[in-house]
Amino acid sequence: DTQETLVLPVTSTIIRRQVGCLRLIILLWRMMMGSLEYHRKKSNQRYLDKPFWFTIRDAKKRAKKFNIDFNLTEEYVESIYPKDGKCPALEIKLKRKDGSNAPSLDRIIPSLGYVEGNIQWVSKLANQIMSSATPDQVIQVGKYFKKIVEKKNAA
What we know:
By secondary structure, the chain is α+β, with helices and mostly antiparallel strands.
């Protein structure tokens, strides 16, 4: 059983221990998981405290990635958030961190980018429905889906 000395920086202290290989792996795993959980909780709390800041940050990253215009401010994005807290497309309550009901920024005309006057708040579900289809295609699929459901309910 070989022993080695390990020096690990943890916060502002240094841990010096004689550990075997398995103990080293377990120690590193526990430290990493504890750190990840701590940061995950902190990040969730920051998101709940400043959701519009996170929205701006993420939209700016997407704009840069896809080389599209961006000129949004946190104040603007907050000012256009639905006053009743509902998705204007589906009329469902927007709930932060709640899957398909979570608020999402929609580019009305995607090629114009994230610019004032070209964005709106909708639910994540509504945004996903609208993101890859034209308005006529969305209506066509909606009519088809409604017909299928009514036919199934009648049977």
